[in-house]
UniProtKB/TrEMBL annotation, chain A:
The lineage of its organism: Bacteria, Pseudomonadati, Pseudomonadota, Alphaproteobacteria, Rhodobacterales. It comes from Allosediminivita pacifica. InterPro entries: SoxY, SoxY_sf, Sulphur_oxidation_SoxY. Gene3D superfamilies: SoxY domain. Pfam families: SoxY (PF13501). This is Thiosulfate-binding protein SoxY. Residues 35-136 form the Ig-like SoxY domain.
UniProtKB/TrEMBL annotation, chain B:
GO terms for cellular component: outer membrane-bounded periplasmic space. Keywords: Hydrolase, Nucleotide-binding. PANTHER family: 5'-NUCLEOTIDASE-RELATED, SULFUR OXIDATION PROTEIN SOXB. Belongs to the 5'-nucleotidase family. CDD domains: MPP_SoxB_N. This is Sulfate thiol esterase SoxB. One of its GO terms (biological process) is nucleotide catabolic process. GO terms for molecular function: hydrolase activity; nucleotide binding. Pfam families: 5_nucleotid_C (PF02872). Residues 383-535 form the 5'-Nucleotidase C-terminal domain. InterPro entries: 5'-Nucleotdase_C, 5'-Nucleotdase_C_sf, 5_nucleotidase/apyrase, Metallo-depent_PP-like, SoxB_N, TAT_signal, Thiosulf_SoxB.
Length: 138, 565
C-alpha cells in the first residue's frame, strides 16, 4: 500500500506515545531518595503534590509541589530514563515553600515529591499520572 | 435531633413509599392505560427551589428512537452499582414492570417491539413543553444544560452549532457547561459563548499558557431563586484534549481539578450560598468519586456518560442526578432549602415520549426554520434496515458494526476501528435510513476516515489503552465512553485485569489466524485526534456502503469475549 508522508508522520506520532506497563517506584528511585534524605526515615503524606490524573501532553505536564516550612522539595519521575526532575531549595526569606513547573513524562508513571521539613524530618507523596494515546471520547 | 443526612434519607424513603418520587407512579399508571401528558408531568411541587436539568442533547432537535445499553460494566467500587445495571436487573432494581413505558424508556430489552408501541422520544419542542409546564408550577425554576449540546447532527455541523444555539436560546437556560462544543474550534466556541444570553461555566476550564482559570468561562454564578442564594459551579469534561483533538482548542487545558472545585465550593459558601449545585460533564462515576472528595456540594447534575436514572444516587449529603441524553429525558429536582441547608428533595426523571407530550408550536417553528435550508439533503433516503441500529454498549452496537463494515469495504482494509462514543440515536426494523440518520451517528469536525498500516503489537497497545480509559478501577482515570469498536478483529477482554494485560486472543477474523505482533495489518478508522489526518469523510464512506447494500442486515456480534464482568 501507499503511504503519504503525512500518514507516516501521524502513525509515528501515535507510536511515540505507546505506553508500556506503568513504572512505579523501583530500586534506582529509592537510591535517589536515600541520597536526598541521607537514609533518614520518610513519612507518607505531608507534601502537597498537584498533578493531573491523565496528562494532556506527556511532553509538558504541569505539576505543583508545596510543604509548609520545607527547606527543600525533590521531585522524581519514577518511570523516566532519568528519574530526577528537580530539587527546589527554599531559603529563610522564601514567602512559601511552593513551586510549580512543567515536566516531561515518558510514559504512565508515579511522580514522587519528597520534602525536607522545617524540623529536619522528611515527607513523601506520590501521584500516578497516566500518559495515554487518547481518542474515542464519549 | 435528626441530622441532615438522616433527613435526606428519610425524605427519600418516604417519597419512595408514597410514590411521590413520581417514578413508580407513572410506570404503574401507564401499565393500566395509555399514557397522558398530565401523568408524565404530574409533580407535587415541593420546597422552594426547582432545578431543571437537560444534558448531552447532541443536537437532536427532532424526536428519535434511542436504545439504552444492554452491556454497561462497572469496575472497582462501581461493580454492579448503578448506572452499571442494565436490562431486567435494572427493572427489578427500580420495580419497573416488563412492557411498561419505563421499561421502554430506561432499558434495552424488546426494544424494537416496544418502540413500535410507544413511539419516538425526545424532540426539543416536546422538551420546551415540559420546561414551560415546570415553569408554570415554579416560574423561577433554574434550567441548566450539562453540555454536548452543539454537536451531533447534519444541521449542527453545517451551521457550526448555530442551530442549537438558536433553539437553546429560545428555551432560556440559566447556564451551561461544555465538552464537544470545543471541537467546533476555539475561535468558534469563543464567538458563540460571547453571544450567549446565559452563563458559560467551567471551574476546570483553564488557560493553557498560564494554567490559570480561563477568562471567558466563569467557574460559578449565583442565582437568587425562591429567596434562596444558589451557586451553580460548572465542571466541563475533564479530558477534552485527550479524548478529542486538543489541536482544535490549544489555548485551553482542563482536568478534574477537584481541589480547585473544593476551593470554589468554599468560596461560594463564604459568599453566602445556601445551595451549591454542580453542573457537571465529568461522567457519572467520576462525579460519584468527586462527591466523596469534595465536601459541601448539595446537588451534582451529572452528564457525559448518558445514564438515565429514575432516582437520585446519594453520596454523603450530595445527591447525584442522571438525566440521560439525546433529548430523551428532562430531570426536575425540587428542593427545600432552609437556613442555608438543603432539608429535602423531590425528583422526577421525565421521559419525553414524543407522541404523548404535545410539541410547543413556537419551538417547532423555530426548529423547522433551522432545518429548512437543508431539508432535501436531510431527508434523502439512502437505504433501509432490517434490524435495530443502535450504538450504546461497552463493546459494540449494530450502528458501529455497520460503520466498521463500511470502513473495511470502502477503504479496502483488513481491520476497522470506530470510536466508542455514546451519542447517536437508533433506528428500528423497517426504518428507512436517511442522510440525517447517518450524520446523527457520525457527524463531527474531524470525521476523516484514515487508512493506515499498524503492527499487531500496536493494535494491542491501542486496545489496552482504550480499555484502561474505561475499566481503570479508579474513576478519575476513566474518560467515559466505551471500548473502541473493532471490525475484522476479534479479541478477549478481562475487564478486571491490570492495564496492559486485559486483552488476549486477538484474531484476524478474515483468516481466523491469531494477530501476529510483528506482522503489519491494513487498518481503516475515523475520528483520529491527530492533526493532519487524511481521508474521505466517514459519513460519505457510510453512505456509499449503505447505497451499495440497499438493505442493512444486523447480526449478533460475538467478536469480543468478555471476562470479569
Amino acid at each position: 500500500m501507499q503511504f503519504t508522508r503525512r500518514e507516516t508522520l501521524a502513525l509515528g506520532a501515535g507510536a511515540a506515545l505507546m505506553t508500556v506497563l506503568p513504572y512505579r517506584a523501583n530500586a534506582a528511585v529509592e537510591d535517589f531518595v536515600n541520597e536526598f534524605t541521607g537514609g533518614a526515615e520518610v513519612a507518607e503524606g505531608g507534601v502537597d503534590l498537584i498533578a493531573p490524573e491523565i496528562a494532556e501532553n506527556g511532553n509538558t505536564v504541569p505539576i505543583e509541589v508545596a510543604a509548609e516550612g520545607a527547606s527543600a522539595i525533590m521531585v522524581l519521575a519514577a518511570g523516566n530514563p532519568t528519574p530526577p526532575v528537580a530539587t527546589f531549595n527554599f531559603g529563610p526569606l522564601a514567602g512559601a515553600s511552593r513551586a510549580a513547573t512543567r515536566i516531561r513524562l515518558a510514559q504512565t508513571q508515579d511522580v514522587i515529591a519528597i520534602a525536607k521539613l522545617a524540623d529536619g524530618s522528611f515527607a513523601r507523596t506520590s501521584s500516578l499520572v497516566k500518559v495515554t494515546i487518547g481518542g474515542c471520547g464519549g | 435531633m435528626i441530622s441532615r443526612r438522616d433527613f435526606l434519607q428519610v425524605s427519600m424513603a418516604a417519597s419512595a413509599a408514597l410514590g411521590a418520587s413520581g417514578f413508580g407512579n407513572w410506570s404503574r399508571l401507564a401499565a393500566q392505560q395509555a399514557l397522558t401528558q398530565d401523568q408524565l408531568l404530574e409533580f407535587d411541587t415541593f420546597g422552594n427551589v426547582s432545578l431543571i436539568h437537560v444534558t448531552d442533547i447532541h443536537a437532536q432537535l427532532k424526536p428519535i428512537y434511542f436504545r439504552e445499553p444492554s452491556v454497561n460494566i462497572g469496575v472497582g467500587p462501581n461493580r454492579g452499582e448503578v448506572p452499571h445495571v442494565t436490562g431486567a436487573d435494572f427493572r427489578r432494581l427500580y420495580g419497573i414492570d416488563d412492557g411498561s413505558p419505563s421499561h421502554y424508556a430506561l432499558t434495552s430489552g424488546d426494544f424494537a417491539a416496544l418502540a413500535q408501541a410507544y413511539g419516538r422520544v425526545g424532540g426539543m419542542d416536546r422538551v420546551a413543553t415540559v420546561v414551560n409546564a415546570i415553569r408554570a408550577d415554579r416560574p423561577d425554576a433554574l434550567l441548566l444544560d450539562g453540555g454536548d449540546t452543539w454537536h451531533g447532527s447534519y444541521t449542527c455541523h453545517h451551521t457550526q452549532g448555530q442551530d442549537m444555539v438558536n433553539v437553546m436560546n429560545a428555551l432560556k437556560p440559566d447556564a451551561m457547561t461544555f465538552h464537544w462544543e470545543f471541537t467546533l474550534g476555539q475561535d468558534r466556541v469563543r464567538e458563540l459563548v460571547e453571544g450567549l444570553p446565559f452563563d458559560a461555566l467551567g471551574q476546570n476550564i483553564f488557560d493553557a499558557m498560564w494554567d490559570e482559570p480561563a477568562e471567558r468561562f466563569k467557574p460559578y454564578e449565583f442565582y437568587e431563586r425562591g429567596g434562596v442564594k444558589i451557586a451553580v459551579i460548572g465542571q466541563a469534561f475533564p479530558y477534552l484534549p485527550i479524548a478529542n483533538p486538543g489541536w482544535m482548542f490549544p489555548d485551553y487545558t482542563f482536568g478534574i481539578r477537584d481541589r480547585h472545585m473544593q476551593e470554589m465550593v468554599d468560596e461560594v459558601r463564604a459568599q453566602g450560598a445556601e445551595l451549591v449545585v454542580c453542573l457537571s460533564h465529568n461522567g457519572f462515576d467520576v462525579d460519584k468519586k468527586m462527591a466523596g472528595q469534595v465536601s459541601g456540594i448539595d446537588v451534582i447534575l451529572t452528564g457525559h456518560t448518558h445514564d438515565a436514572l429514575p432516582e437520585p444516587v446519594l453520596v454523603g449529603d450530595t445527591i447525584l442526578i442522571a438525566s440521560g441524553s439525546n433529548g430523551k429525558f428532562v430531570s426536575r429536582v425540587d428542593l427545600d432549602v432552609r437556613d442555608g441547608q438543603m432539608m429535602g428533595f423531590r425528583h422526577k426523571l421525565i421521559p419525553i415520549f414524543s407522541d404523548v407530550i404535545a410539541p410547543d408550536p413556537e419551538m417547532t417553528r423555530l426548529i423547522d426554520e433551522q432545518r429548512a435550508p437543508y431539508i432535501d439533503q436531510l431527508t434523502e433516503v439512502i437505504g433501509e434496515t432490517e434490524g435495530t441500529l443502535y450504538r450504546r454498549g461497552n463493546f459494540n452496537g449494530t450502528w458501529d458494526d455497520l460503520i466498521c463494515d463500511a470502513l473495511m469495504s470502502e477503504r479496502d482494509a483488513q481491520i476497522a476501528l470506530s470510536p466508542g462514543v455514546r451519542w447517536g440515536p437508533s433506528l428500528i426494523p423497517g426504518d428507512k435510513i436517511t442522510r440525517e440518520d447517518i450524520w446523527n451517528v457520525t457527524s463531527m469536525s474531524y470525521g476523516e476516515a484514515y487508512r493506515n498500516e499498524m503492527t499487531g503489537e500496536f493494535l494491542k497497545v491501542v486496545l489496552e489503552d482504550v480499555a484502561d480509559n474505561i475499566f481503570n478501577p479508579d474513576p478519575y482515570y476513566q474518560q467515559g465512553g466505551d471500548m473502541v469498536r473493532t471490525g475484522g478483529l476479534g479479541y478477549r477482554i478481562d475487564v478486571r485485569a491490570e492495564q496492559g494485560s486485559r486483552i488476549s486472543d486477538m484474531v484476524l477474523l478474515e483468516t481466523g489466524e491469531p494477530i501476529d505482533p510483528a506482522a503489519t495489518y491494513v487498518v481503516a478508522g475515523w475520528a483520529s485526534v491527530n492533526e493532519g489526518t487524511e481521508g474521505p469523510m466517514i459519513w460519505d464512506v457510510v453512505e456509499n456502503h449503505i447505497r451499495q447494500q440497499g438493505t442493512i442486515r444486523t447480526d449478533v456480534n460475538t467478536d469480543v469475549e468478555v471476562e470479569g464482568a
